[in-house]
Design brief:
Layout: E1 14-18, H1 23-26, H2 29-39, E2 42-49, H3 59-84, E3 94-100, H4 103-113, E4 118-123, H5 128-134, H6 137-144, E5 149-153
Parallel strand pairs: 1-2, 1-4, 2-3, 4-5
Helix pairs in contact: 4-6
Length: 158
């Protein structure tokens, strides 16, 4: 029998928890909180605001789009604080990150930008045609991430 030798202890200093504010995504939060506490790590809580499609050069239209983008960001910021209220222990180091773009791309970009060492993400439990049509951010992150990803299976979505 081969003896297991642990040369370097596993260590996580920064853990990323991406959320879209859905109940399903928040099911992974307790795992992120527990691991951050165990490792005395910083928990980075990220929300990605979807990017708006490119717009025409019409000045009036552009102003409306800029206002919409600002409103979406403000709403997301409020929702980020509201959805986490009372759920984060005071002694835990956390940082809230709000970015705009495609979710999987922004999550993967955060790995290098914030020196993330572990991602804790929920799967939404979509199956069949809904999974094919909507895609899966968690699946893309697991497939492309250079670091460990802990996926938490959310209860089945009806």
């Amino acid at each position: 029998m081969t003896e297991f030798r642990k040369e370097t202890p596993i260590r996580f200093d920064r853990i990323l928890f991406p959320t879209d504010f859905s109940e399903a995504s928040l099911e992974a939060l307790p795992y992120g909180l527990e691991l951050a506490g165990l490792f005395n790590a910083e928990l980075l809580i990220m929300h990605v605001v979807p990017a708006l499609p490119p717009m025409s050069a019409d000045a009036e239209y552009t102003t409306d789009v800029a206002r919409l983008a600002s409103k979406l960001r403000g709403d997301a910021e409020a929702k980020l604080h509201e959805s986490l209220a009372g759920k984060i222990p005071a002694q835990l180091k956390t940082r809230r990150i709000l970015v705009q773009g495609r979710a999987a791309e922004q999550i993967l970009r955060a790995i290098e930008e914030y020196q993330i060492e572990l991602i804790v993400i929920s799967t939404h439990g979509l199956t069949g045609w809904r999974h094919m049509v909507l895609g899966s951010v968690a699946e893309k992150v697991v497939r492309l991430s250079p670091i460990p990803v802990l996926t938490v299976r959310a209860r089945m979505v009806s």
